[in-house]
Amino acid sequence: MTDTPELHAFRARIRNVLRQRLPDDVRTATRNGQQLARDRLVAWHEILASEGLLVPHWPRAWGGQDWDVTQQMVYDEEVALADAPELNSVTFDMIGPVLVRYGTPAQRARFLPAIASGRQWWCQGYSEPNAGSDLASLATRAERRGDRYIVNGAKTWTSYAQYADWMFCLARTDREARPQQGISFLLIDMRSPGVTVRPIVGIHGWVVFNEVFLDNVEVPLDQLVGEEHRGWTVAKSLLEFERLKLARIGENKRRMARAREAAVTRGVVGAPWFRERFAELAMRLMALEANAARFIARQQAGEPIGAEVSMLKMRGSRLIQLWEELTVDALGPQAMAMDPAWLYAQAGAAPADALAGTASSRRFLARGYTIAGGSSEIQHNILAKQVLNV
Fold first, then answer.
1. Given this structure, which CATH class describes domain 122-232?
2. CA 319 – CA 317 distance, rounded (Å)
3. Which tens digits make up the pLDDT trace of 42-88?
């Protein structure tokens, strides 16, 4: 992305704030690919909120700065390059804009200031054991009884539900309707009786995903967003908010820097095999960034962005996996350990470093990128049917 003088000054301001305000322990942990506890993340959210940089893409009326998509992309890139944590997109990029568009005045007044403060955490109740990419087949049901819904069902792969205060949830309110009809968009307090969160420990050893069980959970009618039985419309608009950002340009650049650092520490940065693979991935990233810029220009010109935007998600998520694999290969055998403490205990072993100690966990975690946000297989089908007409 080529900066105009105005955009260059904008980038410099963001970079300066991140340099001055990002706590050292948060920066170090993020650089090394370590997980941060909720309290450290919330503390960072509060710092960003104090600088007006937590939800700058929101309307000014609700604590934002009305940034356009170019400014948002620059911001995301600078956040990644500064080794700041990736923000919880479910909270700040999904439910916030949905409430701005579809929420009642009371819902906006209740939730948007709390989200913009950085203290309120949300999770997304979409996927189910038998309804992942085929979301329209969801089975969670909400029965209307008096002034509330009674919700029963199960959600899975719910990112960071163990941290969440609230969940936005799709539930079937009309079981006789066609699959994509009869679904409603509900806001559920995670402290409600009947909500159970069961962590899923991944092969990487971290808890990112969870199962969420809903057993006779009472949801007041005023926590319905949009019209009853019309939640699919709300759900589709929510996916529009995230599509451009799923190219993950900033996150790819973070991983490119990490791969280079790994190669330097192990003395393989000049090795032909590393140089060849690094160059290939760097060129892929340049192409991805140029393609993303094309979509950004279309959006700014007021042109509709069609199904072809799915290619950004496919390319960006796969590229992240390839960077992580290159980092592991550059680090060598020490990257195989799932527990960095194990390295220190080996007689005669070279001193471990934090980058090697988390490399395998990050590589395994990256396997989920081609599933999250719509699996690559589904994205291929979308492109085939809606773009290529085959």
1. mainly beta
2. 5
3. 999 999 999 999 999 999 999 899 998 889 889 989 999 999 998 98
Domain regions of the chain by residue span: 5-87, 122-232, 248-387
CATH number of 248-387: 1.20.140.10
On the question of a common fold for 122-232 and 248-387, the answer reads: no
Q: CB-based burial of residue 268 (10 Å sphere; 0-12 exposed, 13-18 middle, 19+ buried)?
A: middle
242 counts as catalytic? yes
Selecting among 86, 218, 242, 325, the annotated active-site residue is 242
The DSSP bridge pattern shows strands 141-145 and 195-201 to be unpaired
Query: What are the pLDDT digits (tens) for 118-152?
Result: 999 999 999 898 876 677 788 999 999 999 999 99
C-alpha 281/C-alpha 145 separation (Å) is: 55
